[in-house]
Structure formats: C-alpha cells, structure tokens
Specification:
Ribosomal Protein S5, domain 2, Alpha-Beta Plaits, 7-stranded mixed sheet, about 40% helix
Length: about 350
C-alpha cells in the first residue's frame, strides 16, 4: 500500500476513537470450529447491558511500515497476557486492514465487571477493539460505509479474535453461522435476527450467579479443539441446528416453556461435550448443580418463568422475563447461598455497542 499524504497528515496528528461493546450470552451454543475460525454450527445469543468493555485507541504514524506497534494498558496498567492476545489478534488482521503496518496503536481498555468475576470477557474486549479498528480505517481511508457494511465488517474482524465476539457488535438477539431459517446468516459474520420476539423476550433479564471466580481449568480455545476428535461432534452440530429452529419458533410464539427447555438443553449439551471429550473435564462446580436443582424444584412448585444457561464455566445465567422480576428476585435471594461471596450481577438484554459515551 502507498501512503497518501492525507493519510500521513492524519496519522501525524493522531486518529482517535473509542467504543463500548457488551458481552453476550449464547442460548444456542457455538462449540467447535471448522476452517479458519468458522463455526461448526450456528449459534444465537443476546447482548447484555451491564457487562461491557470500553476500548480507546489512538493511531499514530509508524513510517517504518513494520507495524502495528502496540502499547496496551488494561484498567490503567500494563497487562502482559492480554497484550499478547491483542498482538496475536492484530497479526491475524494484517491481511484484512491494509493500514495496520503503518501505525503505532495506543490501546487503553477496561471492563465494567470485575476481571476476577469469571465472566468471559473476550467477546466484549475483541468486539470493542474490532469496532475501533474499523472506525480508524474509515477515518484514514475516508471510506463511507453504510451501517450494515460497517457492522458486518466489524463482526468479521471480531470473529478472528474470538468467535463469540462477532455476535457482540449488535444489540438484541443475534445469530452467527449459516442457518436455513435465518435470512442472510453467514459463517463469516453475525447478523441481527430477522424476526420479532414476543413480549416475554423483548426485555429479558439475566442475573449472573457467580459460583466460582477461579480461572478456568481448560481454556475455551483448548476445549473447542477437543471437538475436532469428539465422537459425538456430528450429532451435536445437528442438534444445534434443530435447536435454533425450535428456539426461533418459541421466541416468535412467545412460548416460555419451549424457550426454557431448548435453552437448558443447549447449556447441558455444551457441558456434556466437555465431559465426554478426550480428555474429559468438568467446569461445573457442586454449587452449579445445587442451583440447577433449586431452580427445577422452585419452578415446579411456584410456576415461575425462569430458566438457566451456562457459559464455558461454572456460573449460572438465570434468565427471566421482565414481568417475572418480583418472583425471580425471591428465587435469586434463595440462590445467593450458592454464590461465591454472595456475588451476582443483575443484567438484561441490551442495545449493543456505542461510541457516544466514551468519556
Ligand atoms: O468465543 P469463544 O471461542 O470464547 O467461545 C465461546 C463459547 C461459548 O461461550 C461456550 C458459547 C458461545 O456461543 O458463546
């Protein structure tokens, strides 16, 4: 690439941007890859509101063209493990963003949730960074993209940092991976759903019950690799396709019971895949099961519209419609005994990333 003088002028001044991007919680789980960071099955998630990453980036000229050079701080401090992940991510992006060799990037990042909380932060972190990088490209090359092109490009880039991050560039419910029931769905990027969920799901809430805040024994990357040789992989990928169709129907028909049974089936199938990998491993903790049993019992007794899902970790996401909040909070008070230090995060579906509130 030849640098235009305008490009150099802009970079000498420094080009700055900042994005806030949310974590998301998958209802239909992505677990297993094909090709280059493509999903072996489609997934569906919704964006959260309270759990997010804010990332500020300043790009300056690196005339040597051997970049990107990177200075990274997390919550005001140097953080070597995160810096390594970011450098690896940026290397992946060299074929996609022509300007990268010519910049020195100062990246400052921070999360709204405690880092030790055991919440997967890669989706919010990688999507926030992807959005800043596409925004900088727009400014440097003076390209005008419509919103759809902008977010699809950001999603495609975010995917290369962390699969689930590609779903975090949108608010509401999002699908990643080709699926016959979702128009324009793609393995390369996520898309917002092409249908309107019923009112039970519009303002769905998610209380994250923090069972254990220790770092995971097996990383998501290592776990996903084990799906390559998994004896049940084919059946699992087919199950996810069928479950996504069922979940779509339940969202449209405002059918909480089907939604709950599909969502819980997905969570338990994800953990079943982990347990039956070779070597197998268990990320659930005794209190994860105590919570599941308690939810099952109380839901039957009191007919509460609640259900749970799990990430690749021991924490429980308790999902409920907004109108069920009072009853759900009573149940949550009973579940507090199983949370590490009584910790939980009250979250809900969110409207997605923004760059307005980056002060
Ligand atoms: O994005 P990764 O590689 O960290 O994988 C995320 C996998 C799950 O969180 C377990 C499921 C999902 O679809 O988000």
């Amino acid at each position: 690439m030849t640098l235009s003088s305008n490009f150099k002028d802009l970079l000498s001044e420094g080009v700055r941007t900042c994005w806030r991007s949310p974590a998301n919680i998958a209802l239909i789980k992505y677990w297993g890859k094909k090709g280059h960071q493509l999903p072996a099955n489609p997934s569906l998630s919704f964006a959260l509101t309270e759990a997010y990453t804010i990332t500020r980036v300043e790009a300056k000229l690196n005339a040597a063209g051997d970049g990107p050079r990177v200075s990274f701080t997390f919550e005001g401090e140097r953080n070597q493990p995160f810096a390594l992940k970011i450098e690896e991510f940026l290397k992946e992006l060299l074929p996609h963003l022509d300007y990268l060799p010519y910049v020195s990037l100062t990246i400052e990042s921070g999360n709204s949730f405690p880092h030790s909380a055991g919440i997967a932060s890669s989706a919010s972190a990688m999507s926030a960074l992807a959005l800043t990088l596409i925004c900088i490209e727009q400014q440097l090359l003076d390209i005008r993209m419509d919103d759809e092109t902008f977010y699809r490009k950001a999603s495609n880039i975010a995917r290369l940092g962390s699969g689930s991050a590609c779903r975090s560039v949108y608010g509401g419910y999002t699908v990643w991976g080709k699926h016959p029931d979702i128009a324009e769905s793609s393995d390369n990027y996520a898309v917002p759903i092409d249908f309107t969920p019923g009112n039970l799901f519009e303002n769905i809430k998610d209380t994250i019950l923090l069972v254990d805040q220790e770092p995971k024994k097996v990383s998501s990357r290592a776990g996903q690799q084990l799906m390559n040789y998994h004896p049940f992989a084919k059946a699992r990928f087919e199950q996810a396709v069928t479950n996504l169709s069922k979940l779509k129907k339940s969202l449209i028909e405002n059918d909480w019971d089907t939604f709950a049974s599909v969502t819980e089936n997905e969570a338990l199938s994800l953990h079943a895949m982990m347990m039956t990998s070779s070597p197998g491993y268990i990320l659930m903790r005794p209190n994860t099961l105590n919570i599941v049993e308690h939810i099952d019992k109380k839901r039957k007794q009191n007919h509460i519209k609640v259900c749970y899902t799990l990430d690749a970790g021991p924490n429980i996401h308790l999902l409920y419609p907004e109108e069920e909040t009072e009853k759900a909070l009573q149940l949550i008070a009973e579940l507090k005994q199983y949370c590490s230090g009584g910790m939980m995060i009250h979250d809900k579906i969110g409207s997605g990333p923004e760059n307005k509130h980056c002060k």
